Amino acid sequence: MPRVYRGQDICPVARTMDIIGQRWTVLILRDLSRGMRRYSELLESLGGIPSNLLSERLKQLEADGIVTRVLYSEHPPRAEYELTEKGKALGPVIKAMYRWGTEWQPREEPAEARSR
Amino acid sequence: MPRVYRGQDICPVARTMDIIGQRWTVLILRDLSRGMRRYSELLESLGGIPSNLLSERLKQLEADGIVTRVLYSEHPPRAEYELTEKGKALGPVIKAMYRWGTEWQPREEPAEARSR
Description:
By secondary structure, chain A is mainly alpha-helical.
């Protein structure tokens, strides 16, 4: 599998970023860790993600052992996604991001509100 | 400034990823938090990063209030980079990535070693 930081792979931070560093991946993990399981729920929550990109990211996360895909209906084929133990272990990373964003990066006011 | 996850900006995780989610940014922050200060040190440590990309990332981090740039020589102009309080506050994010990478994503053995 292609990795961005192969030359840095002695570093655990670089190895982590090679798994979660692609665009949207952390937000997919956020939603799965909140208990979302269905493709359609993820697609709706991640307003703006192209559907083929969500599908690609989920496949990569499955290949990396972060997510399992479980068929819950055969006709039509429907799957649910769940975090593995390895995926759940990313919880502290997401929580640390949540805390930093809350404390240090407030939501920007829309320009309209500011000009009033 | 363009943000990837603007539609998600109610979420602190998305706001954090909009600051640190670009390729190489986390590894630059890792090196600065280890005490590296000079452009040349960063360039060497981040073997493989194109120099113009490092320069662009540092400018963006400065614009985001994560890094300060201090001139330590005028002739020739030379600068050092330092984390601000806001930048240092990202420490727990990087530490959580370090722990996860150490525990869950071991370094892959080179193919040569495996075939022996």
